[in-house]
Structure formats: structure tokens, C-alpha cells
């Protein structure tokens, strides 16, 4: 078997979700030659390639597609690129993390290659058998891929934690020949801008501690209490869909079935009732703490530690009594 | 311009999903079915574009067993002008659906193809944990969120996924992990709709009556020259492992102590 991993990079580094994809590729079977595909343009791409070459012990080679046409992660260009690289390398598997990048690109590339992709894989048992959650995580489906290669998978990075070891000697880096890359569709979609909240705090997907607020926080102003608490803990801040819909915080903080899936060491939920779609996004957290004034809130059925009480008293008390982060 | 909207019949969000004892799937017999809430948003958006004078016709399409007609009638009652039902009793995977949609687009030549983002969520829906949002296995896709991207690839059209706000120029704001990405797309294009795009209207009784006489055309995959192929085999469907409830503590001090000395996470 040979695997192509579609990797995302930012600021000259490979994203940890892409390193998780390599970890997942590793469990497809023995003697798997794993190639990472990076695209973009300029010096940050070359820096990312250097990082890619040593980011995981199982990387066999790094393929770099350097072009202005690939400056932004647009599905139109990326899908074409994947099709081209697949036709040149004939991989048995193509993997990407199931973030917004992978979810956008993988299906389009699969359609071009005339195969059915399998999304949101959480476990791999053999080269062609996978487990994925269905019905908002209320059931797990084990599926076998019986189609033609490549077998295309998007993987949940929280299910494939990144190992601490890196590759001791860097894997070879080669440039993808883009002389035939281009064509009509590439200009049909144009990147305009990316609007994001700049934040000093750790990224939600990778944070060791996540502090989340629900609708019970009542206002954007009150969410600042949580942000202060997160600062003290070195935690990321998340929110329920209700809190996002109410406009307390921006969309990208949403945790749950249609938001982000997280699996931190410590998950603290304040004023979160625990709807099943939210729980689907936190199920794999190691320790869950719930603070809610309703003792019957469903969140207590999954929390390791629960506190029944007024969060407007408990948050300041925690803020005061928690030890400084080390 | 014509707008085509693909809609899907799914298990109603209020139904608690049950895994069949023989592990072959989830129970869909005698279960209430409804239109996927994301598809309602797609229809609503199409109707608003038409009402703004930017489109002349809204065509709703659905694929699957005979009962899909009920879902199409709902779309017609909301205001779609006519409907197309691709009748198939096979399990339709996203690649099949994408190919069927491409074939329909080749016939109908719409300027815009709208689809609901195929994941629904009804978090904190009046706090009832049993409320969930689900998909019928026979319909467009099950939590796959692939069809829009696939059909756009087949058509060589640009795609705007997870649109949360669209403007007349088909500038699309899409939610990405890092924030909101704005793209400008040439028409024709495929756009998949996300939850916060709009608030779908209710079908009024007069419109429900009117919908009964609107045309629903029936076609088969054969007539569209699409072969239904299955690349994926379901081995088993099981219930996810449950988390156990922990302990209720009495004070913040106790919590900090537990986190520090028992769980050792701070």
C-alpha cells in the first residue's frame, strides 16, 4: 500500500491535524509508503516542507506543489492537483483530516477520480475497513471499501493523537511538476478574504484544556469571564451552538456535531445543558467538568465531576482559587 | 436564471435513533420522516433569490424511494415551482447522487445548484437530550457532507460550501476552521447551505393545497444514463460506548482538589 496525505500548513508549520492523518495512515497496514502533499506558494511553503520532512517517523517523502494558483486552499485547484498527483503516483489510499479543508477538497477530488470517499473515520481496522460515526454520533458504522483505488478517507484527528517522536533524518522533498496544471475552472472561484478572530489562546482543536460556555452565560460581556478563566488555565474557549446563535461569540468557537470536535485532557462546561449534538463534539475528552444550576441537566450524565450552582458565583471563585498555570 | 435545489428525506430530528439488534443499521421503519432541515434552508434561499427578481424558477429535486414525493410536496408547498423525483430503491451513495444531479443539471441547465450541508444539529433544542438530527440512509447522504463538492467537481463548476451568507454577486462567506472565508464564484455554481443562512418559512395551508397540483416529474437513473454503483459495504452498525456519570461535588475547593490530585489535569 501507498498513501498520499493531503497536508495543511500555516506559518511554515504542518498543522497537527495533518500529522494525525499520517498517524492514521500508519494504521492502514505494514509497509505503507506515506507521501505528504503540500501546496501553496513562497517561502512559508518551503519552510512547511522542511517541517513536513521530519514531522512524523513514518513520512517517506514530501511532495511540494508551489504555484500562485495554489496560494489559497481553494477546492477547485486542490482537487485538480490531487487528481494529477494520483494519476502520476497511483496511490492505494488518499487521506486528509476532516476539518473544513479536507471536507471541502476530498469529495471533489474523489468525484474527479470516480470513487466514493469515506468521511469522518474514527478507527481503522485493516487497509479497507473503517469505523465512522453516523446520525450525529448516535451510532457507529463499520464499513468496508470495495471500490477501485484510491480509497479516500477523511479522518477525525482527535481519534489519532500525534506521537511525540519525530523523524530523526529528514524525508526527501520533491517538487510536483506543475507544467500541465491549470485550466478553465481554476479561475471560476476566487479567494476574497479570510476573517478570523486573532487570539493569543491555544487553538480549540489542539488545546489541552477547553473552557466552554452555553446560553446560560446570557451575554457576550459575560463570556469575558470565561476568557479570563481560560487565560489563567492556558485553555481554549469554546461555545455551544445556542451561545453562537445568540451572538455571544463567533461561529468558529462552536463545539459539537456541526462545529468542532475536541478531545482535550480537561473539558469544563459552564451553563451547558448537554444536548446530544454538543456531546457528540466532546465525547472523547479525558475529564469532563460540568457546572450548571439545573441538577437534572443531561451534561451531568457524562461529566466526571459536576457542580450544581450559579456559574456567576462559581466562575469568579475558580478564577481566584485555581493555581497559576505553570 | 433557474435554481435547482436538491432536497432529502430524513428521519425527523425529534426521533431518537435506535440501532437494530442485528447490527445491520438503524431502525427506519415506522419512524417519522421529514425534510432535512439544511434542505429547508436551501429551498428558502432559492425562494428568496427568486423573490429578489434574480431567478425565474425554483426546481426541487429528490432521489430515493417513492416516499420522497412527500418531501418534494413539502418543497412545493414552501414555494418551489416544480419538482423532479429520481426514483431508486438502491442505497444511493454520494457519488451516485452527484452523478444523478449532474445528469439532471445537464438537462435542466440551472444557473445555481443549492444543497443543504448534509449534517444537521439541533443542539439545546429546549434542553431535551433525546432530540437529535438524523438522516435517512436511503437518501442523499448520511452525515457525509460530500455531495455538493462532488457534483461541482463532475460539472467543473466552482463550489461554495457551508455558505453562511450569500450576496447577489455570488460572493460566498463560508465557515472554515480558522474563521470566515469569503469567496467570489462565477455562475453557474454549486452552493451548500449552512444553518445560519436564513430562517425557513412555514408552508401555509393554501400553499399546501396549491402544491398538490404542481407537477412532479419522475425519472429513473437508467433514463438519466447513470449506473448505480456501490463502493462501500456496511459491515455493522453499533451503539457508541457510553460515558459514565461521575460524581457531584459540593464546592469549588473540592473540584480544584479533585482536578489536581485525582484527575491530575491541572
TrEMBL record, chain B:
Keyword Transport applies: yes
Keyword Electron transport: yes
Source organism, top-level taxon: Eukaryota
SMART domains membership: ETF
Localization annotation: Mitochondrion matrix
GO BP terms, alphabetized: amino acid catabolic process; fatty acid beta-oxidation using acyl-CoA dehydrogenase
Xref: InterPro entries: ET-Flavoprotein_bsu_CS, ETF_a/b_N, ETF_b, ETF_beta_N, Rossmann-like_a/b/a_fold
Subunit structure: Heterodimer of an alpha and a beta subunit.
The protein, known as: Electron transfer flavoprotein subunit beta
Organism of provenance: Carnegiea gigantea
Source lineage: Eukaryota, Viridiplantae, Streptophyta, Embryophyta, Tracheophyta
Amino acid at each position: 500500500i501507498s498513501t498520499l496525505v493531503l497536508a495543511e500548513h500555516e506559518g511554515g508549520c504542518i498543522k497537527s491535524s495533518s500529522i494525525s492523518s499520517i498517524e492514521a495512515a500508519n494504521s492502514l497496514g505494514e509497509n505503507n509508503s506515506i507521501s505528504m502533499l503540500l501546496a501553496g506558494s513562497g517561502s512559508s511553503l518551503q519552510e512547511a516542507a522542511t517541517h513536513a520532512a521530519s514531522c512524523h517517523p513514518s513520512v517517506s517523502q514530501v511532495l511540494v506543489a508551489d504555484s500562485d494558483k495554489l496560494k489559497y486552499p481553494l477546492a477547485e485547484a486542490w482537487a485538480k492537483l490531487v487528481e494529477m498527483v494520483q494519476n502520476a503516483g497511483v496511490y492505494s489510499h488518499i487521506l486528509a483530516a476532516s476539518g473544513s479543508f479536507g471536507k471541502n477538497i476530498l469529495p471533489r477530488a474523489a468525484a474527479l477520480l470516480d470513487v466514493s470517499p469515506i468521511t469522518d473515520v474514527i478507527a481503522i481496522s485493516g487497509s479497507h475497513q473503517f469505523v465512522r460515526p453516523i446520525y450525529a454520533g448516535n451510532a457507529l458504522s463499520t464499513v468496508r471499501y470495495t471500490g477501485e483505488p484510491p480509497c479516500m478517507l477523511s479522518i477525525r484527528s482527535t481519534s489519532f493523537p500525534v506521537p511525540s517522536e519525530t523523524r530523526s533524518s529528514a524525508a526527501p522533498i520533491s517538487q510536483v511538476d506543475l507544467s500541465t496544471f491549470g485550466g478553465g475552472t481554476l479561475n471560476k472561484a476566487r479567494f476574497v478574504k479570510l476573517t478570523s478572530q486573532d487570539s493569543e489562546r491555544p487553538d480549540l482543536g489542539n488545546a489541552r484544556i477547553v473552557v466552554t460556555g452555553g446560553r446560560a452565560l446570557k451575554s457576550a460581556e459575560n463570556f469575558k469571564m470565561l476568557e479570563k478563566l481560560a487565560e489563567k488555565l492556558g485553555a481554549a474557549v469554546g461555545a455551544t451552538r445556542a451561545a453562537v446563535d445568540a451572538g455571544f461569540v463567533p461561529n468558529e468557537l462552536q463545539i459539537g456535531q456541526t462545529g468542532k470536535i475536541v478531545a482535550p485532557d480537561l473539558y469544563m462546561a459552564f451553563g451547558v445543558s448537554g444536548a446530544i449534538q454538543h456531546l457528540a463534539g466532546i465525547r472523547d475528552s479525558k475529564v469532563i467538568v460540568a457546572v450548571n444550576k439545573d441538577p437534572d441537566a443531561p451534561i451531568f450524565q457524562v461529566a466526571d465531576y459536576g457542580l450544581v450552582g450559579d456559574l456567576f458565583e462559581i466562575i469568579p471563585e475558580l478564577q481566584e482559587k485555581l493555581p497559576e498555570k505553570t | 436564471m433557474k435554481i435547482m435545489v436538491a432536497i432529502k428525506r430524513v428521519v425527523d430530528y425529534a426521533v431518537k435513533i435506535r440501532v437494530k439488534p442485528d447490527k445491520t443499521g438503524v431502525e427506519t421503519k415506522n419512524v417519522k420522516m421529514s425534510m432535512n432541515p439544511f434542505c429547508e434552508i436551501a429551498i428558502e434561499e432559492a425562494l428568496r433569490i427568486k423573490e429578489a427578481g434574480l431567478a425565474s424558477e425554483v426546481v426541487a429535486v429528490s432521489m430515493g424511494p417513492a416516499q420522497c414525493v412527500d418531501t418534494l410536496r413539502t418543497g412545493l408547498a414552501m414555494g418551489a415551482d416544480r419538482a423532479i423525483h429520481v426514483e431508486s430503491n438502491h442505497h444511493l451513495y454520494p457519488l451516485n447522487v452527484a452523478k444523478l444531479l449532474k445528469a439532471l443539471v445537464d438537462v435542466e441547465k440551472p444557473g445555481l445548484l443549492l444543497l443543504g450541508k448534509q449534517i444537521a444539529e439541533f443542539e439545546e433544542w429546549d434542553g431535551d437530550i433525546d432530540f437529535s438530527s438524523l438522516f435517512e440512509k436511503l437518501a442523499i447522504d448520511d452525515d457525509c457532507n460530500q455531495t455538493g463538492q462532488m457534483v461541482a467537481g463532475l460539472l467543473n463548476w466552482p463550489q461554495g460550501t457551508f455558505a453562511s451568507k450569500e450576496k447577489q454577486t455570488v460572493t460566498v462567506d463560508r465557515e472554515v476552521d480558522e474563521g470566515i472565508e469569503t469567496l467570489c464564484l462565477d455562475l453557474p455554481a454549486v452552493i451548500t447551505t449552512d444553518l445560519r443562512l436564513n430562517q425557513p418559512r412555514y408552508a401555509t395551508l393554501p400553499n399546501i393545497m396549491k402544491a398538490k397540483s404542481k407537477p412532479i416529474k419522475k425519472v429513473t437513473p437508467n433514463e438519466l444514463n447513470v449506473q448505480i454503483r456501490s463502493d462501500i459495504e456496511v459491515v455493522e452498525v453499533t451503539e457508541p460506548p457510553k460515558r459514565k456519570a461521575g460524581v457531584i461535588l459540593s464546592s469549588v475547593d473540592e473540584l480544584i482538589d479533585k482536578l489536581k490530585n485525582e484527575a491530575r489535569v491541572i
